[in-house]
Amino acid sequence: MTNRNLTELDMAKIVSLAKRRGFVFPSSEIYGGIGSTWDYGPLGVALKRNVKEAWWQSMVYDRDDIVGLDSAIIQSPEVWIASGHADGFADPLVECPTCHKRYREDHLFEAMGAESNASGIELKCPDDGAKLSEPRMFNLMFETYSGPVQDTASKVWLRPETAQGIFINFDNVVVSTRKKVPFGIAQIGKSFRNEITPGNFIFRTREFEQMEMEFFVKPGDDDSWYEYWIKTRFQWFLDLGVRAENLRTRPHEASELAHYAKGATDVEYNFPWGWSELEGIASRTDFDLSRHEQHSGKKLQYFDQELNDHYWPYVIEPALGADRAALAILVDAYEEEPLGTGGKEDLRVVLKFHPDIAPVQVAVLPLSRNDKLVPKAREVHSALRKHFRTEYDDAQSIGRRYRRQDEIGTPFCVTVDFETVETDNAVTIRNRDTMEQVRVPIDDLANQVRAQLRSMGSTRA
Ligand code: GAP
After folding, report:
1. Are 58 and 236 in contact (CB under 8 A)?
2. Taking the C-alpha atoms of 388, 378, 372 and 403 in order, what is their torsion angle to the nearest 10 degrees?
3. Pocket of ligand 1, candidates 24, 27, 138, 208: which has the most ligand atoms within 8 Å of its Cβ, to mutate?
4. 97, 208, 214, 344: which has the fewest C-beta neighbours closer than 10 Å?
């Protein structure tokens, strides 16, 4: 089965596997849940950390021209007035007068295959067919109060994007790092949007993590850097093993562009419900720096020594959701493989994660919970955990344990058996994808596991 053929039914299976194996749980479940809100379990948190780590590695550690930042979630409300979010960060909301369900008007048009500004189409409630209300613009920012007094002076917003924290620190970073244009500032952190219609598991939620990078360039150099970042970001997904046929780029129509953008291109993924935005790459011009300079009164122009001139750098921004990236990687990795001659029991479910993303890279399993095998397997595990993300497991039969490791996407299982302790001091390494087993001396095990992880595509093992 290829991912192209994944259906909504497969999506339900993936959501169920995610809960059963401890990737993602419905949040506040013991209180009946709070719609479209999710908690990451032990394996999910590892998966998302690995995704963020791979992004940070490629953006910050592997380059000389990008530095990191971690700005506050609650910032001065002036930030959001200057950026245009206070007035303009809104979606068109329509409501059913009968069942009171609310929808995003542009999503309903999209589902009908019509333009989002289509005129003359009467929108009906998808549930009961009643004529929907006229649209009203609904601001997506969450409001709260900072400090003990709840009045207009203490009103603040939770950030709806991490980007503005970067713009307001532009001068601090230039002065403290002496970076010269072109250079970038990268940030990973939570963002909040009061989405009208969250949904599709962790695809669209009201609280999510973003990985954003603002790349500052000389005006006039922006178009070539825009192309560069579209290519570079697309390649990042391929390098993490996402199948090329499930990825595409889609340039935005002029009518879709956000208020700050000169151009924008989405990297889209073929999710089980269809092609949807995974990451956005935007050409933001000097909109943000110039607006913050005007609103704050603080000079945010850059002095270019070579040109002996001041200017607001233009900005290219690749912006990706960590949760959405983790979801695409999870969906892309999901496979069902028939074993033998049919029947439900003969189906192997396997997550074919890239070895740098897999929550567990190598599992150590004694053949059985035997007094001789367990201490040896523990010893092997202690040695391997210094080098790799590992797990030790001696519960249930060896067959069931292999199944579990396949289902959580562990690339290799190391098995300690009676020959190990009685004759050869060697173990078997089982490959998740081919299910082939090779026998390897314990003395050389870490090297062999590293070589196998590399042959599966790891660049970091
Ligand atoms: N600073 C630009 C910006 O925030 P965006 O297209 O609104 O642009 C960037 O968001 C990325 O953040 C999206 O491509 C998506 O991956 C992720 N994202 C946005 N809204 C989200 C939501 N409600 N839930 C999960 N991820 C979201």
Report:
1. yes
2. -60
3. 208
4. 344
Length of the chain: 461
What pLDDT, on the 0 to 100 scale, is given for residue 1?
43
Q: What residues of the chain score a pLDDT lower than 70?
A: 1-5, 115-119, 341-345
| CA atoms within 13 Å, Cβ hemisphere of 336 | 16
The secondary structure of 370-412, three-state, reads CCCHHHHHHHHHHHHHCCCCEEECCCCCHHHHHHHHHHCCCCE
Which 3 state secondary structure label does DSSP give 258? coil
For residues 21 and 202, give the distance between their C-alpha atoms in angstroms, rounded to a whole number: 16
Pairing of strands 334-338, 155-157: unpaired
Q: Which residue has the tokens 């560069």?
A: 228
Q: Cα(300)–Cα(312) distance, rounded to whole angstroms?
A: 7
Atom of ligand 1 nearest to the CA of 212: 1
Contacts for 52 with CB less than 8 Å, ≥ 6 apart:
188, 209, 211, 322
Contacts of 127 (CB under 8 A, 6+ apart): 96, 99, 101
Residue nearest to atom 26 of ligand 1 (CA): 321
Q: What's the CA-to-centroid distance between 195 and ligand 1, angstroms? A: 11
Condensed to tens digits (0 to 9), the pLDDT of residues 67-93 reads 999 999 999 999 999 999 999 898 999
Q: Return d(Cα 369, Cα 430) in angstroms, integer.
A: 19
The Cα–Cα gap between 281 and 265 comes to 5
Of 86, 316, 55, 93, the closest CA to residue 184 belongs to 316
Centroid of ligand 1 to alpha carbon of 212 (angstroms): 9
Contact 249, 267 (CB under 8 A): yes
The overall longest dimension of the chain from CA atoms, in Å, is 81
Q: What is d(CA 156, CA 459) in angstroms, rounded to the nearest whole number?
A: 43
| Architecture in CATH of 3-75+142-330 | 2-Layer Sandwich (3.30)
Task: For residue 10, give both structure tokens.
Answer: 């497969």
Domain boundaries, the chain: 3-75+142-330, 90-139, 360-455
The protein residue with its alpha carbon nearest to ligand 1, atom 12, reads 321
CA distance 42 to 44: 6
d(CA 420, CA 284): 61
279 Cα–ligand 1 center, Å: 7
